[in-house]
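Working notes for the structural subgroup meeting. M.R. asked for a predicted model of this chain before we commit to crystallization trials. I am recording the input and output together here so anyone reviewing the notebook later can reproduce the run.

Input as submitted:
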Amino acid sequence: MKIRTLLVAILALAAAGGAGWGGFRIFESSKPAAGPETPVTRVRRGPVAITVSARGTLQGGNPETMTAPQVAQESLVVTELKKSGDLAQEGEVVARFDTTQQEFNLREAEADLAEAQQRVIQAEADNQATDEETRYAVTSAANLVTIAELECGRNKVESENKARMNDISLEQARARLKQAAQDLASRKTTSAASMNIQRAGEARARMMAEMARKNIESMTLQAKTAGYVNIQSNTFGMMRLMMGMTLPSIQIGDSVRPGMAVAQIFDLKSWEVSAQVSELDRGHLAQGQPVGITVMALGGKSFSGHVTLIGSSSGSSINPSFDCRMALDQASPDLRPGMSSEVVITAQKLDNVLWTPSQALFERDGRPFVYLRTAAGFTPRDVTLVKRSESQAVITGVNEGDLVALSNPTEQNKSAAPEKSAMKALSK
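Returned structure, recorded in C-alpha cell form:
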C-alpha cells in the first residue's frame, strides 16, 4: 500500500510539472520578441568647433626651382646630380650637364672672333693707304690750281692766245681739285662703312664666344639657398605620358629639355603641408584659418600652422578633392620633406549652440531631419542645419536634452521582423 501511494504521488507530481511547462511555453510564445534596441543620444548645448581633417605630406616652403639652361640644343645630358632628400648648402652644385657641344661652339666662336679681328686690322690698313692716296691727289690738284693762278697773273703781258690757254688751264685745275675733294669725302664715307661692317662682324663673333662661355657656366646648377633637394620627374619622354606610365625621377645620364625643371630646393626656414581635402569641405575653408599639424614620423609631434592656399579641384568625379596648402608657424630641424602628417583645420568656432553627432542627422528630399524619441516611439522631426563637420551637426528645431536616434529605427524594425518570426517558430 505504501508503494502504491508513492507511485500515485509521483505520477501526480509529473502531471503537475507537465502542465506547468506547457503553460510556460504558451506564455513565452504569446510574448512579443524583443528586437534590437535603437541607439540614441541627447541633443546638447555648448561650444562647437567645425573642423576638417586630412592626411598630408610635408614639404619645404618657398621652393627654389632649378631648370636646365636655355641653350640652343635639342637636349642636355645630366652628368652630375644630387639625390632627393640630400641637404644642399648655399653655392653647392646640385646638377651639372654635358658641355661638349657648348665647348665646340666656344672654339668656333673664338676662331671666328680671331678672324674678324684680323679683317678689322686689314681693313684699317687698306683704308689708311687709300686715304693717303686720296689726300695726295687733293694736295696735287691744289698745287696745280696755284700754278695755274700764277700763270693767269701774267695774262696782261701775254698774248691773247696764251692768256686764253692760261684761263682754260686754271679752270681744269680747279675742276680736278673739286673732284679730288669729292673723292676724298666719298672715300671717307666708304672707309667708315667698311670699318663698321668689319667691326660688326667682330662684335658678333665676340658675342657668340661670350654666349658660349655663359652657356657653359649655366650648365652647372648651384643652390642659391641652403635646403633639401627634391629631384623632379623626367618629362622628356612624352611617349611615356601617352602610354600612362609613371614618370621616373631624373637620373645621371638622362636627357632633358632646355628649360625643363630638374630640381627644387626647399627653404629650411619655412615648411608647409600639402593635403588633398574632400570637395564637400571647400565651403568651410578659407586662407588664414588655424591648423593643428601632427607629424607621424616624429612620434606624433604637433605643430601649429595656418591655411595658405586653397587650390583647384582634382580627382575623380565620384570623389572630387582639392589641394590645400598649410604653412607651419615654426620650423624644426627634425623635419624632412615627404613626412606624413595629420592635419586638423579649425574652420569655425560656435558658442552656445545645439548640436548632435553627425550620424543622428538624416536627409530626405534635401530636407534634414532627426528621429525624435517620444512616448509613441521615434518620430521624424524636421530641423534646420546650421553647420556640419565630420563628427558634429549644429541644428535648430529641437530642444536641449531631447533624445534622437543614431540610426534609422525604421530600418532596424524591418531587420528585426525576420528575427521575430524565427523566435515564434522555435517556440512551437
